[in-house]
Amino acid sequence: MTEAAPVVACVACGRAIDCCEFCDRPDCSTAICYRCVAVALRQATRDLHDHGG
Amino acid sequence: MYDYVAGKLDWLAAGGPIEGTDAATPRAGDVARGDVPTCGLDERLGEVQERTRPAGFDACVVVNQERVVLGLLRAKELDGDPASRIEAAMRPGPSTFRPHVRIQEMAHHMVDHDLENSPITTSDGRLVGLLRRDDALRVAHGRHQAEGDAT
Questions:
Q1: Which residues of B fall within a CB distance of 8 Å from A20?
Q2: Phi and psi for A39 in degrees, rounded to 5?
Q3: What is the pLDDT along chain A (53 residues), one digit of tens a residue?
Q4: 8 Å CB contact of A24 and B94
Q5: Which of B91, B94, B69 has its CA nearest to residue B80?
């Protein structure tokens, strides 16, 4: 029988994740998901906008 | 005129030159240490230990021949059995950050998450350098003071 991966909730959006995407720790008290850390650091935009052309 | 199809964010993430009012803001890629020790998957931990700490680092980045980051040896992993292969000792697929992230934001998050160092890579995973928390804090603090002096 395999042990289930620990699940924590992203502090920003509440999504269940295995570990914090910023520090890689499963026991991080401020765990954040990949999408939220990318948005927080402006590595990505939250919503893509449409260009006219 | 040149049309960079992948978009502005990808240009920034690749460490491309920027201009404009915010161009002088220090960023992760400016502060990251490009001389961080690197190693390959087939090496033994003992060989890596011998060159990492004498170089003043407590982390080593595992890369392939194209300098794409495969893993990270932080202080805990570096203290492992010298006979072990890097592939077995490393922390695979570490979180990496792009060169254009503002140093103040990186410093803030590194303190918040108690993270000593973070690999900085381009969007295609190539190593730019290792950002150390002390360096990030020093530069972010200097920037904060400079902004205070200017007002």
A1: 113
A2: -70, -40
A3: 556 666 899 999 999 999 999 999 999 999 999 999 988 888 776 555 566 55
A4: yes
A5: B91
Tokens of A9: 């909730």
The domain that holds B129 is classified in CATH as 3.10.580.10
> What is the ipTM score, two decimals?
0.76
Tokens standing for residue A41 = 């650091």
Tokens 């690749």 sit at which residue?
B14
The residue of chain B nearest to residue A34, with distances taken between CA atoms, is B95
Domain total in chain B: 1
Q: Do the beta carbons of residue B44 and residue B140 sit within 8 Å?
A: no
Return the DSSP state at A19.
S
User: What gap in Å lies between CA B48 and CA B27, rounded to an integer?
Assistant: 29
Domain with B110, as residue range(s), is: 8-150
DSSP symbols for B66-109: T-BEEEEE-HHHHTS-TTSBHHHHSEES---B-TTSBHHHHHHH
Within-domain flag for B2: no
